[in-house]
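User: For my dataset I need records formatted as: sequence, then structure tokens, nothing else. Please produce one.
Assistant:
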Amino acid sequence: MSRPSLLPTQNAERYSGYAAYSYLEAGRDYQPFALAAQVGRVAERRFDLDESQITRVHRLMADNIVLSLHEHAIVLPEDGDEVRRYNRTGRQRTGYEGLSRSGLTAVIDNFMAGASCVTSQSGWKWDDMIYALGFRLADLAKQDYVRLATSVEDIHAAKRDGTVALIAGFECSTMIENELDRIDMLYGFGVRQLGIAYSQSNMLGSGLSEPADGGLTNFGRRAVERMNKLGMLIDISHSGDRTCLETIDHSAVPVMITHAGARAVWPIDRMKTDETIIACAERGGLIGLEAAPHTTISPEHPVHSIDSVMDHFRYCVDLVGIDHVSFGPDTMFGDHVAVHRAYAGNYAQKSPQGGEHPRVAYVEGLENPGENFWNITAWLVEHGYSDEDIVKVLGGNALRVLSEVW
């Protein structure tokens, strides 16, 4: 007997059908691309749930705030070989249709700005980040389903009126160079989350791909203090081990590992050490489990899937407790592996110590922002987690931290 679908069969009631940049004329005002499907691009993950459990999944999603700590809620080109050309236009398309079926209340969207490469092939330039931010926010302003959220109240308002709150974030601070006031400018533009470094070192600290980690610089300490004063969430997902620990220690408020996994489960540099995860939790922060292809793998599930990711989830819950764990799947609408292929030379990381593992075309069950949290909730229900714990990891933990930081 076939397992029933969990996913909604129609768009959210408040969504009117708006498509990105439809206030402009494609081909005249901006360059068009054939885009990936936002719904049904890959096979749906099915779970062994009975009717009452499926009802429970839908109730948990409907009644509670569901917040993804890290996504790129954009639509990629259908042809993966066009990813760089598409990103160089600066006009990445928000996936409104996919978000309308996601069940999300809020999403921290990191804009893929480091991949924009409008003025440089290397990424992370100030102008490129402003292109990515400005175009996306202009488009958001022309519709009324996805709202830019700059406060916790905006998230609650989105829940009340059936819309989606988009929280603007950037994965690293490389583009501020040595200009501390650029953090204030980003805050003024609506950015509420900022990473320290993206794999490669910058003026603030070391990235996780470097052969040595010099830790948080003096400028980095000043940047952390400025983010604290502004009320901006600090992300250490791509920072080196020492830089992570020194950022946690220097910040006056909790920081987050918005998208990573546990190195004790899969020993690659992209994952975080127990020391870092514990330190983050002890200061009140969270780790969000990610699902970018070929990251959160586990020995029990070396073919990357939701089951691999949940092995990291269980480990982190055992390590620091359910109050300090959430999810930042780090997905988009389209071929994520094609993005990695397109930018492999830009953001090369150290060779994984985890050994060989099967390559996947996508992460089954956590492939795009439109399906991730339905499947996460289904997995948690299937594995016997209580309503109280599910509510915490879906969004309750994140709201607690954002309330303190913002």
